Amino acid sequence: MSLRKIRTFPDPILRKKCRIVKAIDHSVKSLSDDMIETMDYAGGIGLAANQVGVLKRVVTLHLPEEDHRVLVNPEIQASSGVRQVREGCLSFPGYQGLLTRSITVEARWIDRNGSYFKISAEDLLAQAIEHEIDHLNGILFVDHLVAHQHLTRPVTENSLESHNHDLDVTVNVKNNDTYERLKTRVELNKVYSDSSLSELQYDLYDAGYLLDRE
Ligand SMILES: [Zn+2]
User: Fold this and answer.
1) CB 151 within 8 A of CB 188
2) Which tops the pLDDT comparison, 32 or 145?
3) Which of the ends of the chain has fewer CB neighbours closer than 10 A, N or C?
4) Is there a contact between 168 and 181 (Cβ–Cβ < 8 Å)?
5) What ranges in the chain are assigned the alpha helix state H?
């Protein structure tokens, strides 16, 4: 097992759709082992494969006081109810948002050993399943915000504002054969819809930027 690098926003892979897993082979098993180790190390309760740079429909979950779960090709078959929840994401370190999620979710998947699972989930499990399956479809929790001002960072010593729309990112800018590190700010209130984010991706690619994976 080994730790994998968690991709953070605005890495374009977070907006990509993951592909169906056709066979649970060695690569899928080692991916899920690594994802569990990476998720636990980061203190998260869920992780989707594109968050570690792999476009496969694989999710790992680790809810408090529960065993790890590996979800291959998970699908939501039905959902009901609406509630507001506070939520974060390992790809947006430090950020939390107020958003809407379902109360109950019926989902199915295949586990690491190829067994078929079908459950009716509530509370945190329903929320985590929705969050992670969204990831597999390139959807992020910031797409579900009740309003942009509900995206906040904890107040720190250096920042008295709890309402902050800006995200600091470091990009490596290609300059002939060398790379120059550049710190820049992305305004989150401008990128929380798919349409504006695709412009951002385009800009990053087009400018020859490589996102910092450090
Ligand atoms: Zn997430």
Assistant:
1) yes
2) 32
3) C
4) no
5) 26-42, 123-136, 194-206
Please tell me the distance from the alpha carbon of residue 32 to that of residue 37, in angstroms, as a whole number: 9
Active site residue 87: no
CA–CA dist 161, 189 (Å, integer): 16
Active-site option among 65, 122, 132, 180: 132
Residue 119 CA to residue 109 CA, distance in Å, equals 9
Q: Which of 1-10, 81-90, 96-105, 191-200 has the lowest mean pLDDT?
A: 191-200
What are the beta bridge partners of residue 48? 59
Q: Virtual CA dihedral for 18, 19, 20, 24, nearest 10 degrees?
A: -90
For ligand 1, the distance from its centroid to the CA atom of residue 95, given in whole angstroms, is: 11
Indicate yes or no: pTM above 0.90.
no
- How far is 136 from 19, CA to CA, in rounded Å? 8
In angstroms, what CA-CA distances link 160 with 122, 150, 156, 186? 36, 16, 7, 19
In 3D space, the residue among 127, 121, 129 whose CA is nearest the CA of residue 104 turns out to be 121
Cα 59 to averaged position of ligand 1 atoms, centre (Å): 10
The 10s digit of each residue's pLDDT in 152-179 is: 655 444 444 444 455 666 555 556 666 6
